[in-house]
Amino acid sequence: MLEMRPDCERCGTDLPAEAPGAFICSFECTFCASCAERLDDICPNCGGELMDRPTRTRKLQEKFPPSTTRKFKG
């Protein structure tokens, strides 16, 4: 199951689990669409490809809650 991180690691933008617009690599490093585009869809942490993160419906979030740990270091 994906961790569904709540924010962009590069700029801190909120990335709700139920909303499109998040991009992840195979290690689940998470970036917003704007940052992923600026990074040319390459993860700056591992060099992996950034792909669209699937969404998780609110109903499923009750059973499988997304992470609340923010990764942005500002």
UniProtKB/TrEMBL annotation:
<dbReference type="Pfam" id="PF06906">
    <property type="entry name" value="DUF1272"/>
</dbReference>
<dbReference type="InterPro" id="IPR010696">
    <property type="entry name" value="DUF1272"/>
</dbReference>
<protein>
    <submittedName>
        <fullName>DUF1272 domain-containing protein</fullName>
    </submittedName>
</protein>
